[in-house]
Amino acid sequence: MSINSGATANSGDKPLFTDEDIYLFREGSHYRLYDKMGSHIMEQDGACGVYFSVWAPNAEKVSVIGDFNGWNPDSNKMKVREDSSGIWELFIPGMDKGAIYKYHIISRYDGYRVNKADPYAFHSETPPRTGSIIWDLQYAWGDGDWMEKRHELNDLNAPFSIYEVHPGSWRRNPGQGNRSLSYREMARELAEYVNEMGFTHVELMPIMEHPFFVSWGYQITGYFAPTSRYGTPQDFMYLVDCLHQNGIGVILDWVPSHFPTDEHGLSYFDGTHLYEHADPRKGFHPDWKSYIFNYGRNEVRNFLISNALFWFEKYHIDGLRVDAVASMLYLDYGRQNGEWIPNQYGGRENIEAISLLKRFNTAVYENFPDVQTIAEESTAWPMVSRPVYAGGLGFGMKWNMGWMHDTLDYMSTEPVFRKYRHNQLTFSIWYAFSENFVLPLSHDEVVHGKGSLFGKMPGDEWQKYANLRLLFGYMYAHPGKKLIFMGGELAQWKEWSHDESIEWNILEYPFHKGVQRWVSDLNHLYRDEPAMHELDFRKTGFEWIDFHDWEQNIISFLRRGRSTDDIVLVVCNFSPVPRYRYRVGVPRGGYWKELLNSDAADYSGSGHGNFGGVSAEPAAYQGRENSIIITLPPLGAVFFKNVPRCETTISQ
């Protein structure tokens, strides 16, 4: 269903809720509740003030409390609607933007009393304070050009090279108590850096309001409020606007899988388990000590899908990366026998969550066909990124966790033993086109004692840097969109810490600067060469040349674009031994230009290369009529393209 119309927050003397609104709310298909629920500055009966509404069907009494009435629950009592919707309403004249408030709720059960933040609030106090703030979302956007053409930039055939960022620790201001940058301070610096590095999109770890900074935003209490740690809603809009004006897409982490137990949040909202299941075997997550949404409840579906569409409509977001989808799909996720309840058919599939995800994706693409949804789904659940009408979950893309685990396991192995794990490099191609995959080297791989990407690489110091460059080269050559967590592109020594900036100072050293330059050049190659991205999700975009040379730890393959002229040859040597006069079969004769070489001196490599390119010989090899003889650098990745010889080289 498309976003429904109805009364708006500026509807004059009309009631904010219409009969149609209530019908859709009960039905579970009201996807614009952010225009109805919460607090809205408006005019009623000729008076300017604020309209409040909150869903609390099991409350005996509800009132609005705040700094404006001394937090007195008897001053501004709400009235419950007579349509049995469970919605409480109140208009308070004279109130305006900036007032702090909560809902004081007295349950009809056991006299339970609690002060709750507004689930639909647009703005919140900065933690550890927990009040909601009356706010508007007015902003003069300047990203019209981006919005007009983003259907091309967010297309599945377009390059997606994602830079994952934790806003609180990307850069910090050491001269001011090591504080995080504000949204506005971050905007220009982040846009300039991302453009310099060649990334196409930024993915922000959850910016929705969360009480515990150490949760990195994955324990959300304010689903409709960007965290006030870094500024106001308009400040966050400025960040998105700035990125868009610089040609950079914005993806947000979104967490519909669970929410924290904090008293002011969604948990036990009206003295009952309103948003979560009452039975802990379905409603409590044992690993994360948090509550699980009741996906079968229509009002909860409204809340979650409205929240997803809210970020697209009000903040011009280009995509949502949905966290922990696997935990939603399986009733026994993280549980032992006897700790979970089977579905009505006796299975472990969460049918209500499956339905919610399908409705979420359908609603997103109906209303915003030029955006993407991306699933972090860690199992082999079929058709995650296939349309709902074809039996899939409806996501645009899915993280390839299998590729990530196999690749990091292989790369962390000493090269002398890699030949025994050669299948970890080649196996991913067997399923590479079963989903629309993103290849993630995310924050999850560089925390909790796992070390940095650089720290995972084996060998001496030189080999560690070479291995990391090789890892990135193999990643960009492999079919699928790309994601790198901040700091990885610098070859950061330490694993990520949310309490400090990434290690910008290490760029003083040539090896780190070399890795950074390598990632930048990979990004530009990936974007500039259609063969590197156009057919990321189709079998016709990839062709093995040789995956059998396990003894020497070498693989070679072709990437293809739509045009028959768009062919890139990739050869990777996962051994620290250079291979001279290494023969590779190629599909065409002529000159093969060396586009990139991870061992080039520009990247602090040893300088083994092919002097800009090689000419093919009419010597049949590996099932092809022509072949080239190349110098294959140690722990190196080289990229070639068949071009007229008069073209200049990018690197040597």
3D architecture notes:
By secondary structure, the chain is α/β, with parallel strands linked by helices. Among the domains are: 115 residues, Immunoglobulin-like; 207 residues, Golgi alpha-mannosidase II (Immunoglobulin-like). Strands 10-13-16-19-20-21-22-23 form an 8-stranded parallel beta barrel, surrounded by 4 helices. Strand 17 and strand 18 form a beta hairpin. Helix 3 runs parallel beside helix 4.
Helical stretch tally: 15
Shape from CA axes? elongated
User: Strands across the major sheet, in which order?
Assistant: 10-13-16-19-20-21-22-23
Poorly predicted tracts of residues: 1-14, 648-652
Total DSSP E strands: 31
Strand content: 15-25%
- Provide the structure class: alpha/beta
